Task: structure prediction
Amino acid sequence: MKPDERYPFIPYRTVPLDEATTLERGKSFYAEMDERRSVRHFSDRAVPREAIELAIRTASTAPSGAHRQPWHFVAISAPETKRLIREAAEKEEYESYEGGRMPEAWLEALRPLGTNWEKPYLETVPWIVVLFEELYGLETDGARRKNYYTKESCGIAAGLFVAALHRMGLSTLTHTPSPMGFLSKILGRPSNEKPYILFPVGYPAEDAQVPDLRRKSLDEVSTWDPSPPNSQA
Result:
């Protein structure tokens, strides 16, 4: 493949680490992230805008299909907008929890977590951040530009966003009321964007509680050197 002047190649260098330092960093990061929990009880304590900016910048370092970076983060702190989002989200969530949208098996799976249709934290938190998936790009002349692997790219960006918040001592929750079209209307987003996930962002309330969850073990979530099908011993 011939070099492309849009992305000229430049040297990439990292600082080599010895094995002990590599493992020390890995263990430290794992221990920190293992303390992360989804929070549904937030304080109204202010969070500086710069913290949200840093989390979005971090999320935007994510790899993406053809480097299209098919995401757009909308940050909301205005009380009136947060109120509108809460009302619309609770309307959809009520239909899911009480109106029969969610099958009983799903409701049973959620029951130990104590979730319901009420989302008061959407007004309590200092920030709501909505990640929109850019389905296609728009050129200056209005022509569409195809994006690739948009869901996968946004998923990686969302994970980095959550990690960045946790690193700064902030908490969040991955909230996906279904359907989420109301977010496009309230926030005035263009037709080439689709709501992907909503993050309430803030500090946990002093009396916040979370389920005492057990994470799957390494053996449950990984397989090492599997033998190819029909391989000869």
Observations:
- The longest strand covers residues 193-202.
